[in-house]
Amino acid sequence: MTEIIDACWDKLGIDTSPETIQKDMANMRKLPPEGFDAPIYYDHKGRGYAYSDPDYELGGVSLSDTDIETIRESIEFIQTIGGSRISEKFNHAMEKILSTSIEEFSAGNTKQAILQTMNPPKSRGFEHFDLFYKACREKTPVSLVHYSYKKRNFSVLTIHPFMIKEFENKWYVMGFSEKHNQIRTFGLDRVFDPFLLKKKYIPVDKSTCEKEAHDYYGVFPIPNQKKQGVKIHVSALVTNYFEAYPIHESQVIEKEANGSSVISFNLIPTIELTRLFLSHGYHVKVIEPKWLIEFTENLK
Amino acid sequence: MKSKTSEPILFEIAENKDLADNPKVLRVILDPKFTRIDFGYNATGQYIKGGWIRMSPKTYVEVQGLAEKFLLTETTGITIAPKKVVFQSVKDWQFFTLYFQPIPQKDCVINIIEEENPTPDDFNYYGIELKMNEGVGILQNL
């Protein structure tokens, strides 16, 4: 017993008593979920406690107070960003974790929510999230019906999806489209009745996936444009926002004496990028490239 | 590509000037238990608020060369007459699906018949060719 007490002090920094150790061992002997069904017995010969099964180990994961607090915070965070942004499958998994957490971590104090994120109502097409997730993970082609809002046209497409992307609470699937013979992005809101197909998958190389992940602000690239430098002139007021919330990893701000700035990016220009510029009105003016000045003007 | 099977087979219907394009026939799925046909419809300016759509309960599929009629059993996205899906604007649109009794899973040409003596408002389609070697198996249960 003295050795156990010393070990608790040495390894855990806990100053405990023989009574507490006895209670802990009694709890360890209990059947789950109260205990661990530990085969503890008193070894008269060795004058100490031992496991009758030498291979026995405590199940589960040992959690420190910091671990438990971190898990609590993570659960709260996931609950906050959850709702319509997480699919039913993930919600179900999260419910299981939460129900476990109540049993394991309940401290008896229910906290008031202190995190809030935008949690819009469920959008059309989000019900396909799980199917596309599976298709990307298992590299399976998908047949879908797509409706173009702009062209007012239905089309049937076979795509080879590799990425699901969220941008401003809208969800998209990216994949190689057989009809277009190139990688395309489709808003889930415009996709109907996708089916997984028994067909050979056309893979997309890793560099393309990286490009999709890093070279865009937004989702829809402006056709036939490569990665390039983009410069804007920004008022002093709106410079504060770009400083606080950089929109791309390539963003560089060169401030002028009056607080306004020239901000440069190196990316593939997208529709969303030009919309962002326009949303700031006269506070943002495109300087380079020339074609983008015209393109943005035409969007007004 | 399938030739002999009991799994659902999906056919993309290519745009065809001989087929009516509104509603547009999009896909045909031959399942051992049913025949499924997907359509897309754009409301038009013929009516101030886009009008309405519905399907006759007597709609059927026929396979050219066979006397049998494969009857409409179920719909999604469109109602069976006399009920109507009523649009609110001329820019509305609707994706809908019709289910029929199963047709044989083999090369065939089908017609979709809503009215045997159709008016321009009825949805009749003739000569939709399904070649089994152009169909693709579906991995999930429908």
Main features:
heterodimer; A: 300 residues; alpha+beta; five-stranded antiparallel β-sheet; four-stranded antiparallel β-sheet; 9 helices; 35% helix; 25% strand; B: 142 residues; mainly beta; nine-stranded antiparallel β-sheet; two-stranded antiparallel ribbon; 11 strands; globular
Q: Whole-Å distance between the termini of chain A? A: 80 Å
Helix content of chain A: 25-40%
Regions of chain A with pLDDT < 50 over 5+ consecutive residues? none
Strand content of chain A: 25-35%
Topology of chain B as a string of helices (H) and strands (E) = EEEEEEEEEEE
Q: Which range does the strand content of chain B fall in?
A: 35-45%
Rounded radius of gyration of chain B (Å): 15 Å
Question: How would you describe the overall organization of this protein?
Answer:
The complex is a heterodimer of chains A (300) and B (142). Chain A is α+β, with helices and mostly antiparallel strands. Helix content of chain A is 35%, strand content 25%. Chain A has a 5-stranded antiparallel β-sheet with strand order 6-5-4-3-7. A 4-stranded antiparallel β-sheet of chain A has the order 9-10-8-11. In chain A, a hairpin with a 4-residue loop joins strand 5 and strand 6. The model of chain A has no long low-confidence stretch (mean pLDDT 85). By secondary structure, chain B is mainly beta. The radius of gyration of chain B is 15 Å and the shape is globular. The chains are: A alpha+beta (300), B mainly beta (142). At the A-B interface, strand 3, strand 4 and strand 7 of A face strand 2, strand 3, strand 8 and strand 11 of B. Strand 7 of chain A pairs antiparallel with strand 11 of chain B, so a sheet runs across the interface.
What's the topology here?
The complex is a heterodimer of chains A (300) and B (142).
Chain A: H1 2-12, H2 18-29, E1 40-43, E2 48-51, H3 65-81, H4 88-105, H5 129-138, E3 142-148, E4 153-167, E5 170-177, E6 182-187, E7 191-198, H6 206-214, E8 228-234, H7 236-244, E9 252-255, E10 261-267, H8 271-279, E11 284-288, H9 290-299
Antiparallel strand pairs in A: 1-2, 3-4, 3-7, 4-5, 5-6, 8-10, 8-11, 9-10
Chain B: E1 9-12, E2 24-30, E3 35-42, E4 52-53, E5 60-63, E6 69-76, E7 85-86, E8 93-100, E9 108-113, E10 125-130, E11 136-138
Antiparallel strand pairs in B: 1-2, 1-11, 2-3, 3-8, 4-7, 5-6, 5-9, 6-8, 9-10
